[in-house]
Specification:
This protein has 395 residues and is of the alpha/beta class. The chain has 3 domains: 210 residues, Rossmann fold; 73 residues, SH3 type barrels, CATH 2.30.30; 81 residues, Beta Barrel (Elongation Factor Tu (Ef-tu), domain 3), CATH 2.40.30.10. The chain contains 9 helices and 18 strands. The strands form 3 sheets. Strands 5, 6, 12, 13, 14, 15, 16, 17 and 18 form a 9-stranded antiparallel beta sheet that branches. A 5-stranded parallel beta sheet has the order 3-2-1-4-7, with helices on both faces. A hairpin with a 2-residue loop joins β17 and β18.
Length: 395
């Protein structure tokens, strides 16, 4: 089989290419150049240069064709511009999930198929299986990687059936130490290379510096909230329907300046996210203060002391129907239906028991245990067992 591997210059994709070659496939290595600007990275050089060199060395070692394709314009348009727009309105996007949906398994996939490839492989820690419906149609199942500490199925939660039908994840059955051992025994230059950090294909960045490219700093106040309004957390009103209850519990508390005390200044509410404690410059507290809410209109950050501050927690998450995606369209919920699932709202978070409630305009995710630092714009993904069924943007 002719397979294009997205060689990123890291150990995971290197081993993916090696394993496919060992299986007798015709392997082609493609490196995506998605970013050119080193001014916002914390490294001395733009990391793509070193990464592309390492990818080339791996391809030469394996004796496979290698090409660099420049996708920087597309990446800026679909990922970076989207990030700026989301942060500007007070949402927190996930560029890694978007990169997989919009770049790796879209335009990059099309490029691979145009070269005559049947499949595209990446170094994700995830697995695939498939079953057949009675009518003969094949259904693809996105499963968690075997290495629980590295499982990356969350980052693939926006892929569809067509994309999965063309995808391969060769290291999904392996653990990270096993991957490194294979790379070492195969003499791959990436065997001991550290995992990449930061934004997908950009590298480790200072987010405020990155955002300042388009979002101008604007000084605002930091207001500490000392208590949470009881009506939101203790005494619940009578509800006429389950939907009314879910809607109430999913609403964010709207704090006002008069509800707390001004304790500091910041350079722009857009530069912070819910649950953030670093970079606030707040002292004089026994425990760290965390961002619990942002008033984008008045440029105010509201904070609460301690990671257990009640205002950080939320039991119900709302996702507008238009921003809900089902990997398993065959089990997509209809209006009024519910589904018990396990779910997470961020990468590496343990799966938590929850119930999905589908209504015409929204899908609600009701957790058994209240979740900390729920940020609008992030993705919630839901599972049954090892299988990721779908995901949605938190509204």
């Amino acid at each position: 089989m002719k397979i294009v591997v997205g060689l990123s210059g890291g150990v995971d994709s290197s081993v993916a290419a090696y394993l496919l070659q060992q299986e007798g496939h015709e392997v082609i290595g493609l490196f995506m150049r998605n970013w050119n600007d080193a001014s916002v990275t914390l490294e001395d050089e733009c990391p793509w240069i070193e990464d592309s060199n390492d990818a080339l060395l791996v391809a030469q070692k394996l004796g496979i064709p290698f090409q660099v394709i420049d996708m920087s314009e597309l990446y800026k348009e679909r990922i970076v511009d989207y990030m700026f727009a989301e942060y500007e309105i007070g949402r927190t996007p996930n560029p890694d999930i978007l990169c997989n949906r919009e770049v790796k398994f879209d335009v990059f996939l099309e490029t691979a198929l145009s070269l005559g490839a049947e499949k595209v492989a990446t170094g994700h820690y995830a697995r695939l299986s498939s079953t057949q419906e009675e009518n003969g149609a094949e259904i693809f199942h996105l499963l968690a990687g075997k290495d629980i500490n590295k499982d990356q199925s969350y980052f693939l939660c926006q892929l569809n059936q067509n994309q999965l039908s063309k995808a391969l994840f060769p290291i999904g059955e392996l653990t990270k130490p096993e991957v490194r051992e294979i790379a070492k025994s195969a003499g791959l230059v990436t065997a001991e290379k550290k995992d990449s950090q930061g934004l997908c294909f950009i590298g480790k960045v200072s987010l405020p510096e990155f955002l300042k490219q388009q979002i101008q700093p604007k000084q605002g106040e930091i207001v500490e909230i000392f208590k949470v309004f009881p009506e939101y957390h203790n005494t619940l009103p009578e509800f006429s329907s389950k939907k009314e209850e879910l809607e109430f519990l999913s609403k964010k508390i709207k704090y006002q300046k008069k509800d707390g005390k001004v304790i500091g200044l910041h350079q722009g509410a857009q530069y912070y996210t819910i649950g953030q404690s670093k970079g606030l410059g707040i002292g004089g507290h026994k425990e760290s203060c965390f961002v619990i809410s942002r008033d984008m209109e008045n440029n105010i950050l509201f904070v609460g002391e301690s990671h257990s501050f009640p205002g950080l927690f939320q039991k119900v998450i709302k996702m507008n129907t238009i921003e809900v995606h089902w990997i398993r369209e065959d089990i997509k919920l209809n209006n009024g239906e519910t589904l018990p699932v396990q779910a997470r709202i961020r990468y590496r978070q343990s799966l938590e028991n929850a119930i999905l409630h589908q209504y015409e305009d929204a899908l609600y995710l009701e957790f058994e245990t209240a979740q900390s630092a729920v940020a609008e714009g992030q993705f919630a993904a839901w599972y049954q067992g090892e299988e990721c069924l779908g995901s949605g943007v938190i509204s």
